[in-house]
Each structure stands twice: as structure tokens, then as C-alpha cells.
Design a protein that fits this description.
The chain is an all-alpha fold. Helices cover 67% and strands 0% of the residues.
Length: 126
């Protein structure tokens, strides 16, 4: 089942028109129609909004998962707004941003490792 099929199915389960869904996710009816027919792929920000209004996980929308795990909103609204803005930047800038994010994530993982009890034994000075 495609993401478009899932959007259409979930919309109908909720007895919503395409206009209703568009309003709920701050989009346009024409976009909902294109999502459902596979003519347009929703952006990451729209996928998160869809998951929230349908109360399913984004994994359910994006994968072949059959279990509709409830949506867990774990993102700050300011990050969601930035995701929408990121859709407008060049691919070169997107690649640079991803590289920067990867570096920050790696730094945080290394800090956690270094602060762990096992690391203290490994790095202790004799």
C-alpha cells in the first residue's frame, strides 16, 4: 500500500473530505488529491502533520507497517516550521545542512559514550 493509499484510507476512516484534511494540515485540496493519487509526495513536515491528525506513526505512513502506532509528537514546533522552510532551499544547501546535522549528532553520541561509566574505566589515567 502506497503512502497515497494510506492517506486516502485514513481520510475516509475519519469521514473527512479532501477539503477537511487540507484544512487540518494547513494545505490545499489539490495537494491532498495529488498525494492520494501518487502525483505528489508529501514533504517531511507534511508527513508529520498527517501522522498527527490521523494519530498514526510516520513509520506507518512511510513503510509497509500494518500496525497503526499512535502518533507521538516529539518535535518542537519551531523545528517543524524550519522543516517547511528547508523544502525551499537549494539541494546544495540541503546537503550542507545534513552534513552539519550529522556532525552535531555524532558529537552528542561521542559525548554520551565518553560520559558513560564504562568509558571512565577505559580512559582513566594511571
Amino acid at each position: 500500500m502506497t503512502i497515497g493509499d494510506k492517506i486516502k484510507e485514513l481520510r475516509k476512516e475519519n469521514n473527512w473530505s479532501q477539503d477537511d484534511l487540507a484544512e487540518k494540515i494547513n494545505s490545499e485540496k489539490s495537494h491532498i488529491s495529488k498525494y492520494e493519487t501518487g502525483k505528489l509526495i508529501p514533504s517531511p513536515a507534511i508527513i508529520l502533520k498527517l501522522a498527527e491528525v490521523f494519530n498514526v506513526s510516520s513509520d506507518y505512513l512511510l513503510t509497509d507497517k500494518q500496525v497503526k502506532t499512535p502518533f507521538k509528537h516529539k518535535y518542537d514546533e519551531s523545528f517543524l516550521a524550519k522543516l517547511e522552510e528547508i523544502e525551499e532551499i537549494s539541494q546544495e544547501d540541503k546537503n550542507a545542512l545534513l552534513t552539519f546535522l550529522d556532525a552535531i549528532i555524532a558529537k552528542n553520541k561521542l559525548e554520551k559514550i565518553y560520559k558513560s561509566p564504562k568509558a571512565k574505566d577505559i580512559f582513566k589515567k594511571d
